[in-house]
Structure formats: structure tokens, C-alpha cells
Amino acid sequence: MDLSASFKAYDVRGIVGETIDARIVEAVGAAFVDVLGLAGKTVLVGGDMRPSSPEFIEAFARGAAARGGNVEKIGLISTDELYYACGALKAAGATFTASHNPAQYNGIKLAKPGAQPVSSETGLKEIQKAAEAYLAAGSVAEAENRGTVAERDVLADYAAHLRSLVDLSGIRPLKVVVDAGNGMAGMTTPAVLGDSLLPALPLEIVPLYFELDGTFPNHPANPLEPQNLRDLQKAVVEHGADIGLAFDGDADRCFVIDENGNPVSPSAITGLVARREIARARAAGEDEPIIIHNLITSRAVPELVEHDGGRPVRTRVGHSFIKAVMAEEGAVFGGEHSAHYYFRDFWNADTGMLAAMHVLAALGGQDQPLSELGAEYEPYVSSGEINSEIEDKAAAVARVREAYEGPDVAIDELDGTTFSAADGSWWFNLRPSNTEPYLRFNGEAKDRETLASVRDSVLAIVRA
């Protein structure tokens, strides 16, 4: 049995009934316990609102308990709830989610105790092999000491922990439209920002699509695509709201809309949160708090970090890289262009809700509207990601290098190839997709005219 169709670099993900089913999930639960040595230890398992998640939770629990894991089923959870539970309880865990993927998908995100990620480099390949062996044998072999199965609710503790990190009780009143996209933010938003479990905050929440529905009847739960933000943008303007928040299906990413209905870039949010975390860390005695940013985040981020007395560290794109560097550097915060935000106070894991709380605190702690507050964090013009379908991606990059190489352009290959003007007026990155025939362009410049010129020039060479 070959599971390579569903085992990816950072998680397990596939089409339900085709590349992932309950039999596979039971084998993965058993393999998870074996590979990580979890016999006799707590193993947490939960899942999102997808129709297949309850069946998969039960199957994983059977497999894990059969091999001696003491399973605690934590039910419906966001992905950052899993990270909270793995961190606070010092336990390994799994959650069933396919994040922003369509309804026919489901998958598994795995974490070690302390919310450390499990990737192909840290055990996922071994889990795949062990699961394949159980599937080939036809069943999971029972351990000498079978584990227990119990239930635990972590939502209230998760909400209380987030509130302990950002105090919103004293901000000015804000009207906040939240688009949960029928995903898990429909459950976590009332718990954290509302008064369903904790005292009320000075926030008026206007809910959009809070009903948990893994068939996504209103729009795909992927706020990275502009068309999926339209309902939120319209609602913010119609309600005269101060801010809009959009979460993806498993609520580990958060996108922000200003009072005019315009998106605030994840780079600007990274800068805003970085400023708050640097100030807090310096006040606690850190000389030079470290902030992580990936290489296609705006150059405004490292400039702001240095200005505020922090030290920026540039990394490759991808959460496993970010989390590893967060741990190595002892970084206080990290941000990505994809709206993943990582916090040292959250076990170096990503949480969209905590990032949203920082933005609400910054907005509610002063009188400017978000459009004005956010403008200072976006001094440059960004292209966004532009994909070109190219068979020979290496040849396309070589053509661009030949055209741009020279004393006035710095070139590095940290992740793809980045070209930067010596005078700081522009930069762009070309990254080949690992799974699709795409070459991805991301660029930034001091003004729209410069960006348009560079973008059009590079794309013409790439697509020649």
C-alpha cells in the first residue's frame, strides 16, 4: 500500500474515499504512536467541521490506543487549538483538517509535545512507512498494554490563554465583521472575542457564515483568493464597521480588511504585530528581540524591525522552516505573506486569532481608522503572487538571470531566486512550485510605475 499520494512535506492530505479513508487513518494513528514512542503517553486528537472528521477522529483513536497511546479526544477544534493543547498539556496530537481545500478533501496535521511540527524531515516519512506496513498486514497489531480513550474540552482554556496574552478590555469600542467561511472560526470567535465563555469585551461582532459546515455553502474558506473576501468587504462597508477579519477553514490564518473594505496586506500586519512584540520584549529586558519574516514579505518589515531595535531574520517560505528558525533563534514573533503568524508565547506555532487580537489592540488603542494606521506599514507597492505555467522552469530563471545580472543587482538563492536592485528601488523573487508546473513571481517596488516596468519585463522573459 503506497500512501505517497496523501503524505505531503508537512502534513497528510487527500480526497476522502480515494487517497484517505478510515482504514488509512487508523493505521496512521498506530504509526504515530510507534514512531514517536507515545505508548503510555497522552495522545490528543480532534478535527474540524468537515463531514468526514468525526469518523476519522474515531479511527485515529482506535489505532493510537491499540498501540498503547492514552488517547484524549478533544472534538471540534481549530488547528491553533491543537497547538495550544499540545503546548499547554505537553502532549503529542493530531487534528483532521484540509485547511482551505474544497469539501471533498480532508487531512491530518500532526504535532509533537510542545506543539513541535511533524514534517517529512521530523518523522512524517517514518509514520508513512509504518502505516503502510499495517495496511499491508491487514490490521493494526495490538500492543501488550492497550491505551485508554477519554474526552477533553480545550476551548475555554484556549480562549483564556489567548486573552492572557493580549488585553483587549481597555480598548475603545470597535465594530468587527468576522467572516468564518463556515469554518472553525465560527466556534472560536465567540469563545475568544465574544462573551460565550468569558466576560464581554468592547467589541461588537457582526458574524458572517458562523455555521460550521464543511461543505462550504457560501464560499471556499480560502481568504488568500480575492473573490472569497468580497462578502466581507461589502459587509464591513454596509455595517460601518471599523475592521473585518477573514479566517480560513481551520482558522490558523487571518486576513484583515480596513473600514473602507480594502485588504491590509499580511506584510503590513506582520510589521504591526512585530512592533508590538518588540516593544513588549524590550520592556521585559531583551536587548534585541528577533523577528522572523520569509523572503517574499515586504522589505518594510525588516526596515521597521531594525528601526524599533529588533533584529530581523529572513527565512524560506513555509511553516516548518519558520517554526524551526523561531526555535533556533528564540524569536519573539514571525510572519509570512500567506497570513500565517507565529508567536513565541504560543509555542512558536501559528495562530490567526492571536494575530487578530494584536491588530484589534493596536487599532483600539488609538483613534486613527485602520486605513490610516495600516498605511505606515505599507510604504512600497507589491505585485502579489503571479503564476506562469512553464515546463522548463530552470531555463526560464536562467534567462531572467542573464538579463538582470550585473553590478547593480544582487542575486541570492535562499528560496528560488531573488533579484534586488542595489539602490533599493525594487526586488523580485522567482520560485518554482514543487507540485505544479508553475513559476511564481513576487515583486515589490518604490512606486507603481517601477513595479509595472519590472513585472512586465520579467514575465515577458519568463513566458518567452
UniProtKB/TrEMBL annotation:
Protein name from the UniProt record: Phosphomannomutase
NCBIfam families hit by this protein: PRK09542.1 (NF007088)
Residues of the Alpha-D-phosphohexomutase C-terminal domain: 385-459
Keywords from the UniProt entry: Isomerase, Magnesium, Metal-binding, Phosphoprotein
InterPro entries per the UniProt record, alphabetical: A-D-PHexomutase_a/b/a-I, A-D-PHexomutase_a/b/a-I/II/III, A-D-PHexomutase_a/b/a-II, A-D-PHexomutase_a/b/a-III, A-D-PHexomutase_C, A-D-PHexomutase_C_sf, Alpha-D-phosphohexomutase_SF
Family as reported in the entry's similarity comment: Belongs to the phosphohexose mutase family.
SUPFAM superfamilies referenced in this protein's UniProt entry, alphabetically: Phosphoglucomutase, C-terminal domain (SSF55957), Phosphoglucomutase, first 3 domains (SSF53738)
A Pfam match: PGM_PMM_I
Sequence ranges assigned to domain Alpha-D-phosphohexomutase alpha/beta/alpha in this UniProt record: 6-133, 157-261, 270-379
Record-linked PANTHER family: PHOSPHOMANNOMUTASE
GO molecular function, one term: metal ion binding
Superkingdom of the source species: Bacteria
Gene Ontology BP, a term: carbohydrate metabolic process
Cofactors demanded by this protein: Mg(2+)
